[in-house]
Fold each of these.
Amino acid sequence: MHIPDGYISPEAAATMAVISIIFLVLSWKKAKATCPKALAPLLAVSSAFVFAAQMINFPIIYGTSGHLVGGTFLSIILGPYAAILSMTVVLLMQALFFADGGIIALGANIFNMAVIGGLSFYIVKLIAGSSIKGKRFFIGVFAASWLSVILGALACGLQIGFSPAFIEAGGITVTVPAMLFWHVLIGLGEATITTTAITQLHRVQPAILNGLAFLKREAI
C-alpha cells in the first residue's frame, strides 16, 4: 500500500496531504489530552517496534508476500489518536530513509495506513462495546485488523485508479480489484498476527494496553 511518487496526480496528492494534516493536528490535540505525559517517548518506542515488525514478511500465494501494517495493533496499545501519530512516524521514516512510499504521496500513504489503521479502533469499539475481555473483544480486534487493511487497500486503489497514469489502463476497474484481491489475503495475516499479539499482551501484561482504558470511556 506504499504509493510511490508519480502514481497519483499532484492534485490528488495535495488533497490527501491536506486531509492527513487535519487528522494529524486533531490527533495530536486528542493524544495530548488523553495519553500519559510521556507521549513523545511512548510514540518513539511504539513506532520503532512497528517499524521493525514491518520488516518481517509472510508468504501469501504465487510468490507474493505481505507484512504487518500495525495500525490496529497500535490503536489497542496507545488509543486511536496516538496510534495515528505513531504510524505517521513509521511512514515518514520509511519514505525519507528507505524510499518506501513517495514524499509527494506521503499524505495519501498516511491516510491509507495511519488514519484508517488508527481509526479502526472504533470497529473494535463497535463490536466489543466497553468489554475489554472475552470473545467479543478479540473478534473485534480480528475484524478491525482485517478491515483496516481492506479499507486502506480500497483507498489506495481508488487514488491510483483515478490518476492520469492509470486511467488509460482501465483506472479503478483494474486497480481496485487488484488491490483488494491481494489484501483480502494479506489482511487475514494482519488480523491473525495482531489478535495473537494482543491476546498474549492482554494475558501477561494488560497494563501496557492503554487503548483498553480508552475503549471503556470513549463513546462512538
Amino acid sequence: MNEIPEINLEKTKNDIVEFVQNKVSEANAEGLVVGLSGGIDSTLVAFLACEAVGKDNVFGIVMPSTTTPTEDKLHGTAVAQLLGINYKEMAIDSILNEFLSVAQLEEDRKAIGNLKARIRMSIIYFYANSKNYLVGGTGNKSEILIGYFTKYGDGACDIEPIGDLYKTDVYQLAKYLNVPQEIIDKPPRAGLWNNQTDEDEIGMTYELLDKILYRQVEKDIDADSIAEELDIDIDEINNVMDRVKRNQHKSKVPESPKKTLMVIE
C-alpha cells in the first residue's frame, strides 16, 4: 500500500481545537496571533484558531515583501476578511532594506530569505506581547521533520497546532473545513525569493515526501525496502533521511555542555 493512512478528520479537528484552548488557558493568554501568508498551512491554522478561541480573539498579520506573489498577499487578507478576524497588513521591505544597508554584507539569497522570516516573526511576537496573545505556529509535520523552516523565524512559535499533520493531512483537513479551493489548489511557496516553490526546493512532491517520511519515521522501514515499495531510487530516500538527521537541531532547545562539580574530600 503506497498511501499514508487517512486521518479521522472530525476527531483530529476537535483534538486540535481542544489543544489550542487548553494551551491558551494554561498561559493565561487572551487569544492567538497568526501570520497569514496566503498559503494553506497558515489558512488552516487561522480556521482552527477561530474555532478554538473565537474570531474576536484571533489577530492575523499579512507581511508581504517585493518577492511575495500578489496572489498570496490577496489571499492572506481575503482569509482574514472571510473569517472576520482583526488583521493588519505590514510590508517588511523597509525593515529588510535598512538591515541590509547597515550590515553592508554581500547579498546571499538564502540568508536574506531567512532574514525575512525572522523579521516577520519579530513583528508577530511584538503584537502577541502587546495583546497578551500566544503565537500560533503554521508548521506541518513534513516540514518540521526535514527542517524546512527558518530557525527562530517561521519555526518560532508558542504552539504548533498542525505540527503532527503531514502535508497530505493538511490538505485533507483544509478541504474538510472548507478552506477556499483556490488556496488549496495553488503551489505551496514561501515567497522568500522570486519564483520560489516549496517542492522545487525540497526536490520532490509533498505526496512522495510524506510517503517516505511515514515509512521511515513512523514504521521504521529501512531505505532499501522503502525504495522497492515506492519504486524510486534509493538516493531519494537517503536524501530525505539525511535531511531529517541533519536538521534535528532546529527543533530542539539549544544544547549546553554539562558542568563539572568540585569534588570535596
Amino acid sequence: MSVLKTICLAFSMYSRVPMPQLMYTEKDMRYVFLGFPLIGVVIGILEMGWYILCEKLGIGNLFYASVASAIPFFVTGGFHMDGFLDTTDALSSYGSQEKKFTILKDSHVGAFAVIWTGVYLVLNVGAYSEIHSSLAGSGNKMNIMTCVSFIYILSRITSGLAAVTFPSATGKGAEKSSLAGFKKMSAKIVVRTGLLIYLLATFGILTALHQVIGIAMLIALAAVFWYYYKMSQKQFGGITGDLAGWYLQVCEQVLLYIVVLGGYALGIGA
C-alpha cells in the first residue's frame, strides 16, 4: 500500500492525472522521486500511441508534431514549463544572485520568458515534424519512436537524482523551496540507488533498440546534467524547484534533437 501511495503522491504533485484522495504521511514522501519517472512512462505511452494513430490515419507532419509537442503539457499541466519560464527570465537578467532570486519569486511573466518559451515550442514542433517525416517508410520506426518515448523517463530519472544529490540554493534572497523540503525528507540512499537502477535499465533497453542513438542520448544526457549542476552552482548557489523545471524541459529538448540528428547522420528514413 505504501508503494501505491508513493506513486499516487508523485502523480498528484507532478501531473494532472487524476489520483485518489489519500492521507499521506512523511514516510510516503520519502520515496516520492522514485515515482516521478512513472509520469514519464505515461507521457511516453501517449507519444507512442499518438504516433501509431497518425500512421494508421495518414495524419500529416504538422498536426502530428503539434499534438506530440502538447502531450507532455496535457499530462503535467505545464508544471515544469513554469520553472523554465521563471529560470529563463532570471538568467536573462544578468543581474546579481539576489536579483535572480527576486525574479524567480515574481509571479509576473517577463519578456524573455515569453520569447524563449516561443522559441522552445517552435523547436519542439520542428523536431517532432522531422522525426515523423524521416521515419516514413523506415523499418526502424517503432524502435526510434520508443527511444523518443524514453526521453520523458530519462529527464525525470535524472531530475530526481539531482533533487536528492545537488546542493539546494541557500544564497541571499533564496527562499526554502518545496524541493529542498522533499530533499530533506527523502531517503536519499534508497532513492539514489533506485533511480540509478532505473537509469541503467533504461539505457540497456535504449542501446538494445538502437545502439548508436542510445549511446548518443547517454552522452548528451550526461552533458546536460553536468551543465545543470555547474549553472545552478554559479548562478544560484544551488538548485530550486524552478531550476528543476528548467532542467527537465532543456533535457527533453536536447535529447529530442539527438534523435533528430541521429536520424540525419544514420539515414534512418532513407
